[in-house]
Amino acid sequence: MKILVCISSVPDTTSKISFTDGDTKLNKAGVTYIIGPYDDYALARAVELKEQSGATITVLNVGGADAEPQIRKALAIGADDAIRVDVEPTDSFFVAEQIAAVAKEGNYDLILMGRETSDYNSGVVHGIVGEMLGIPSFSPVMQLDVNGNEASMTREIEGGKEKLTASLPLVLGCQEPIAEWKIPNMRGIMTARTKPLKVIPAAGAALTSTEKYSLPAPKGACKMIPAEEAEKLIELLKTEAKVL
Amino acid sequence: MILIFTEIADGAIKKSSLEAIYYGSKVAEMMGTTATALAIGSADAAELAKAGNYGATKVLHAADAKLANPNSMAYASVLAETVKNTGAKVVVAAKSSFADAVTARAAGALKAAVVGNVTELPNLSNGFQVKVSIFTGKAFADVNVNGDVKILAIKKNVVAPVESSDSASVESISPILADNLFAAKVTETIKATGTISLPEADLVVSGGRGMKGPEHWQPLLDLADALGAATACSKPVSDLDWRPHHEHVGQTGVKVSPNLYIACGISGAIQHLAGVNSSKVLVVINKDPEAPFFKAADYGIVGDVFEVLPKLTKAVLASK
Ligand SMILES: Cc1cc2nc3c(=O)[nH]c(=O)nc-3n(C[C@H](O)[C@H](O)[C@H](O)COP(=O)(O)OP(=O)(O)OC[C@H]3O[C@@H](n4cnc5c(N)ncnc54)[C@H](O)[C@@H]3O)c2cc1C
């Protein structure tokens, strides 16, 4: 089985977000980058499938050279080789186009990625890739098993979940609890250094561009209500906040 | 023309989709055109006509029995075909993981620009620009949308619909449904019944590890019941199986933007805040006055949830 795992490189979830250059660029100073948390689940499940029944895992990132530490981490966790499409991932359609081009070349049985990135949270890349390849796509997938050519999955739906089966090849947007995040061990880190990482150019053009960034207005002070008079809260929510 | 991908639940248009229709009709007004709702699945014609109250002039209804259950691939095919047939240039959907799956495949088929988490009406003064929420609500980006077809997924509560008495004409459509759209076999559906849908809810009561265990949830459920609120939880709570996974809110869970979010025994970690920070009013109940959540809150009560919750429930019931 050939698995392609697509990873994004995003600011750590605890990062304070700020902007520079007249609010046109993300301020990367002091920001730690990580593998997208959802992509990390997809990668972890791919490694488990490889351990269970044998598979090769290619990890794919659409991004600049500064994403390479995250790619090396994915290799250390258990991917076999890596591809980086050398372009800033600025637009969902554009990123999907790059992934679909790589996928067409490689004939993968499973294309896994997170349900969404944690920067733009759009949650559409897997679907666009599936459509471009003419194969089914499902998201958000919270459980995945593969038996021969059949995948059985659990997908989250509003207010619950549904179990489904489909034949490979498939594109899946993954989320917990599909697997537990994996931490690379020393041996993994050593071997990752020599695993192949191919850098290829992008094709096509982005359909959207960000003109300016902004931060939400700061919150006013929190109004404290003594616990002994907790019932006053309901009155305030009615008359002052007007949400009840 | 503006086309609105309209989700149906229990035979009626979902509340979030009515917001999307209203948003779409406002965009149509700005662009000097009309708004049409695309409804897929079984629904009452009278229910569908309500799209008119929210500004749609027409509803296209695909009611083929094969479409009775939500199927993102089949729905996407219907959406893409309808965009082609109607020549719609802008598609609006209410953001949900199902709508994302549908609009994504439609975008792939149409080579459309797709932007999610739109928080305002577009700015048309120089091209087509929308404000989107990024980093799960920590910031915003003004995005220029350039494709020939543009697909916008809007966040909940970005417009406050004003209902009119206008009604929309309902027209049946019979899209082509290829067999391979039904390649997946759904073997089981597990759905909470009789509960209020979390992403749709205006009021949410949410519990964290401070609730101590699943056997202690009753006071929280009682308040939610009294308010008619949906229930939610923090990530550790769903990881521990105290509550079902679909209730998990935050950066790696459901993102909600209700009018009111009441956090009970939740510390307010940055990843939790990321999923709830666009709520209109945030209430925090925590016994630790230093809990970070208070910094993000509008109203706070320092106290034991098990003492505070029953008081709130009593006050809600008394004020009815
Ligand atoms: C990549 C990543 C993604 C994450 N994504 C999410 C996410 O999507 N959603 C999420 O929620 N978390 C997420 N987390 C986890 C997050 O960092 C926190 O660990 C989590 O939100 C804490 O949950 P909690 O507030 O319920 O528990 P705790 O942090 O343990 O807080 C419990 C709180 O309850 C209070 N308390 C205890 N007893 C009482 C009482 N009797 N009455 C009143 N108050 C009481 C305590 O003072 C404390 O503040 C993520 C973490 C990472 C690393």
Automatic annotation (TrEMBL), chain A:
Gene that encodes it: etfB
Keywords of this entry: Electron transport, Transport
CDD domains: ETF_beta (cd01714)
InterPro entries named among the record's database cross-references: ETF_a/b_N (IPR014730), ETF_b (IPR012255), ETF_beta_N (IPR033948), Rossmann-like_a/b/a_fold (IPR014729)
Similarity annotation: Belongs to the ETF beta-subunit/FixA family.
One GO MF term: electron transfer activity
Name listed for the protein in its UniProt record: Electron transfer flavoprotein subunit beta
Electron transfer flavoprotein alpha/beta-subunit N-terminal domain: residues covered: 23-209
Record's GO cellular component terms: cytosol
Automatic annotation (TrEMBL), chain B:
Binding site for FAD: R209, G265, I266, S267, G268, A269, I270, Q271, H272, N286
Keyword Amino-acid biosynthesis applies: no
Pfam families: ETF, ETF_alpha
Cofactors, names only: FAD
MF annotations from Gene Ontology: electron transfer activity; flavin adenine dinucleotide binding
Gene3D superfamilies: HUPs, TPP-binding domain
Keyword terms: Electron transport, FAD, Flavoprotein, Transport
Protein's UniProt keywords contain 4Fe-4S: no
Cofactor binding comment, as recorded: Binds 1 FAD per dimer.
Top-level taxon of the source organism: Bacteria
Residues of the Electron transfer flavoprotein alpha/beta-subunit N-terminal domain: 2-186
GO biological process: fatty acid beta-oxidation using acyl-CoA dehydrogenase
Recorded family membership: Belongs to the ETF alpha-subunit/FixB family.
UniProt-recorded name of the protein: Electron transfer flavoprotein subunit alpha
Originating species: Emticicia aquatilis
Source species taxonomy: Bacteria, Pseudomonadati, Bacteroidota, Cytophagia, Cytophagales
